[in-house]
């Protein structure tokens, strides 16, 4: 892999802060790879810690975000939770025997993921390395090159 440049993306939902994302080129296959900071999600301008606090609040693990989100961030968080609700079965299957057999709700799934895996960052790492998936989507960028 060779460093191949960088691009800017939003660091926060408001778009007033930017991240510089490094690009690398695989000289063998010609594909480029973006390397995100570990505290950011693919395709979403959310910090992992803020997302985790919001999901904890939704699952009644904690009281939620502190400080509370503004309207734009709240919308991003709500869309992320809505997406998580659609992925309960996929995620249950991905984590397999790490979780109890019966998890009737997405809230219960989130509680068990936090108990069994720990932080959202650890969940993301496990999903990417072991399953080629992510928490909120199965993105092409996680699939091996053909």
What Rg, in angstroms, do the CA atoms define? 16 Å
Beta-strand content estimate: 15-25%
Strand order of the largest sheet: 1-2-3
Q: State the helicity in percent bands.
A: 25-40%
Q: Outline the biggest β-sheet.
A: 3 strands, antiparallel
State mean pLDDT (0 to 100 scale): 91
Overall SS class: alpha+beta
Let me know the number of strands.
5
The coarse silhouette is: flat
Low-confidence stretches: none
Given the structure, what is the number of helices? 5
Topology as H/E string?
EEEEEHHHHH
Report how far the terminal alpha carbons are from each other: 17 Å
Give the number of domains: 1
In summary, what is this structure?
By secondary structure, the chain is an alpha+beta fold. It has one domain. It has helices at 48-58, 71-86, 88-95, 106-116, 120-131, and strands at residues 2-10, 18-25, 32-35, 40-41, 44-47.
What does this structure look like?
There is one protein chain. By secondary structure, the protein is an alpha+beta fold. The chain has one domain (2-142). 40% of the residues lie in helices and 18% in strands. The model has no long low-confidence stretch (mean pLDDT 91).
């Amino acid at each position: 892999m060779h460093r191949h440049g960088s691009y800017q993306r939003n660091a926060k939902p408001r778009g007033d802060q930017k991240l510089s994302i490094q690009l690398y080129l695989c000289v063998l296959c010609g594909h480029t790879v973006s390397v995100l900071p570990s505290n950011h999600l693919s395709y979403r301008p959310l910090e992992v810690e803020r997302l985790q606090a919001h999901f904890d609040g939704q699952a009644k693990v904690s009281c939620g975000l502190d400080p509370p989100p503004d309207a734009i961030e709240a919308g991003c968080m709500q869309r992320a939770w809505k997406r998580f609700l659609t992925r309960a079965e996929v995620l249950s299957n991905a984590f397999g025997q790490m979780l109890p057999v019966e998890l009737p709700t997405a809230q219960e799934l989130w509680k068990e993921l936090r108990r069994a895996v720990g932080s959202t960052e650890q969940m993301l790492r496990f999903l990417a390395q072991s399953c080629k998936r992510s928490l909120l989507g199965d993105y092409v960028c996680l699939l091996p090159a053909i």
